Amino acid sequence: xxxxxxxxIVTMTYNxxxxxxxxxxxxxxxxxxxxxxxxxxxxxxxxxxxxxDVNVVRIPRSPQDDKMRGGFxxxxxxxxxxxxxxxxYVDIDELLVADPARYNSLLSxxxxxxxxxxxxAIGFDVIHPSSEEPTMDWSRPVSExxxxxxxxxxxxxxxxxxxxxxxxxxxHCIDAPPRxxxxxxxxxxxxxxxxxxxxxxxTRTQPWKRHDAGMHQRMADDRWDAMLSGMAGLERRDDxxxxxxxxxxxxxxxxxxxxxxxxxxxxxxxxxxxxGDALWRLPDRFVGTF
Length: 290
What we know:
Helix content is about 25%, strand content about 20%. By secondary structure, the chain is of the alpha/beta class. The protein has one domain. The protein has a 6-stranded mixed sheet, sandwiched between helices. A 6-stranded mixed sheet has the order 5-10-7-8-12-11. α1 links the parallel β1 and β2 (about 35-40). It starts with a strand and ends in a 9-residue tail after the last strand. About 40% of the residues are buried. The model has no long low-confidence stretch (mean pLDDT about 95). It comes from Acetobacter nitrogenifigens DSM 23921 = NBRC 105050. Pfam families: Glyco_tranf_2_4.
């Protein structure tokens, strides 16, 4: 039996407002405050000032540099494996859920992963049809207010590690092929129109290491709004169950795995531009889990 703690959860933040509290509520319920680690990159909005027993690691503010972030967090998470059996890294707007039909928590899920294993989450953007659903109340579970998902290969991220890894910039890939099973990632970037535009106003004006970096976080409001409207207007399906027996999900995961075959020597091991052609209704068993 391991003398180490079972699981640590790590993120990084800079002036992310309500999302910090949402992240803490979700992951502290899984592992407790003391096993959550927030790397604060110079926040000035007060969002990390009252996080209880969450470990807040403060680093100096600097221009956004995803390559440096990836290197730092690869080393940081590897170091935590001295003290934990498994470590999860997720961005502040990413909520992980192990299939509730199989697991009662991320702790029980992590315990099922083999020694030295890694796991890739099955990734979805949570979509806000703003003409139908009200503005998000961040004090309540997201899944009780948003029910439409879009599959995204860019959100199919290697998030749980039981051995040191090196994440590529953006944390989309490591130096290994994806390994899927029963872990799901729900990305909140498009879960609320107003919050999304407010975040865009910040990321558009913050310093960046390279002038051509992060262009998707620096686009004009009208372009971002049109993109969200386009996603919200996709065909809708309410017959999706997720899990191993869902043919629609199997088809999209097969596309991701097929794309990996030609990318074994590349930094990004999968095609990051495979996006669902329909919105899928969140299955009832996930409601209330994030």
